[in-house]
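We both want to read discrete structure tokens more fluently, so let's practise on a single case. Would you write everything just below, so we can both look at the same thing?
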Amino acid sequence: MKQFSALLLWVAPLAAWAQATVTTPAPPPGAPAQTARTELLLDHSSEDAWVQAMPADTAVVVLLRRQPKAFGKAQYALAHYRAGLTLRREQPVEIPDEYDVARLCAERGVLYAVCCSHQEPGNLLVLAYNVRDGRVHQQEFKTKKSRDIAAVRAVDGKLLATVALDDGQHQTVLLLDVANGSFQFLPSLYESISSEFTSVADAPAGRAEFVASQTNGRKQRLMLKQLSAEGGELLRSETVQAESERTLITAQLSPLQDTSARLLAGTYGLRGPQYAQGVFTTDLTAPANPADPRPALKFYDFRRLRHFFDYLGPGKEARLRGRTARREAEELSPLRWHYRLLLHELKPRPDGGYTLVAEVYYPRYNYGSMGTAPALSNYSNLPLPYYTGAYSNAAGRALVGFRTTHVLVCGFDRRGSLLWDNTYVVENELLHDQLEEAVRTITLPDGRLVLAYLTDEGLHYKLVNQDEASPNNLKVELFTAGPGVKEKVLDTYQPDIQPWTGSQYVASGFQNIRSQNGAVRHVFFLQTLEF
């Protein structure tokens, strides 16, 4: 198979550039060093690439699809990069034409690529790449009933995939044994299609725990189910619900590896599960005396948070808080907020507590005549995680994507008491075609958080030190060449960043770049940024 052409452009600290190129503007406070970049000669219009950062292995693996001729067979390869973005190996792989790459995930030592058949619904193909010896194992699964994949998690050689079922009404978790090709749908996680799933895993212990929402049409509760990754057996199950008019929407569990604390943090609403009114926490740690009651849930309305409404600006925020204070003084019902939040996994803090990061978003639609729409019955019952540009159930309305407006950051102690909050106001158009993390977070050695996202304008970031105010508009432009070389990025497609090793991100995407002599090159790039 033809090898993929590649150009390793540079490996140099940003400081050296600043000395050599006097026209380089001074970097903003806390700006990252751009330590390495590599480019692959790929054209976004006909080729593709999927990136998976693997911090535990100091590796970045890229699944590449190249189109050698206009109507020729697509060629695939796995490109494995190590520290400094040096290429360790490039491994050709075979993916039949009927399969489309759907999801990538990884555990220590192994990358998994899950592909879905567009000819036989329910057929899956999984590639398992061993980063240590380069071996690739392929396994096909003929599930018949599975359809869209909302999420996939690797645990001890098995994959737990959250899938919609062919009836269009339900979803479940599909356990895939990549080694021997066996699979099973887990009956303990058979829920309505409108249910929201989150999960955490403990790979060394071979277990995973899921949080699933369940509703009776009026109120919603959360079911916690711990499963064995070996055979999908239900190890433990418990229910969390609010006794008041509050309804629980979704939540994240603290990492299973921390056996000294068990925290559940999420969002709640008022008389309805669609919009969040605030965040809640509860301590699920088993009491010393089994007869003791479970601690009560703690609720924090958004109006009680110091920074949540920073995105409104000082004037609008003051008017809003004045209005809520008057309603409270007159003992009226609280204002109902209309926010949707996407929760990130809980991050352990150096002081023993946890940080909850949640993106505030809304779905964006196009209205009007859109040509011939797909059958609405195919999409009308799918929850937002499954929408990928499909038509909604409103005639003439098509979902374009999900826009992140701001990011809420909350610090809790290990028992769920709120210590501080902060907000990253997204000042750029940040639109994704799938409901997934748009802003990525890393923790610095001094305990500060970096929240960052990538656009065609560069890397946008905020440094969060608990509840201290800090700028929302910090940005650095990505360099495409070495000292003294002037180039212009004409277009950027699929910009993305992922946390990597230590205080590093790895950025990626397609770019059309005009060089000094006027020639334009079409590339896929990887670039490291170290804070």
